[in-house]
Amino acid sequence: MKMRPLHDRVVIRRVDEESKTAGGILLPGNAAEKPSQGEVIAVGKGIALENGELRPLDVKAGDKVLFGQYSGSTVKIDGQEYLIMKESEIFAILEA
To answer: Taking burial as the number of CB atoms within 10 A of a residue's CB, which of 1, 10, 56, 77 is the most buried?
Structure first.
């Protein structure tokens, strides 16, 4: 199923959760922190400005981004979990 978010919303798939601490301790599923980075899957058309123009979003599909741990709303589509959030909730685009 394809998704097309509206306005300034972005659909993100989180990167896999860490199941080990930096020291090598294995964490059970409920103790693992949800990662605060992911890949942008789809973006809306942009933000409508006061003069009626549409400002496109800075992020695009395929970007790796950093966001707050409690940002966005979690949705499940076709068994896959996604986050939907406004572009303003994204802190940074991760570049190689």
So the answer is: 10
Domain of residue 38: give its range.
Answer: 9-91
Gyration radius (Cα) of the chain, Å? 15
Distance from C-alpha of 48 to C-alpha of 61, rounded to nearest angstrom: 20
Is residue 47 within 8 A of residue 8, CB to CB? The reply is yes
Whether pTM > 0.70 for this model: the answer is yes
Give which of 70, 43, 38 is closest to 55, Cα–Cα. 43
Tally of domains within the chain:
1
State which amino acid sits at residue 14. R
pLDDT digits (tens, 9 = 90+) for 70-96: 889 999 988 889 999 999 999 999 987
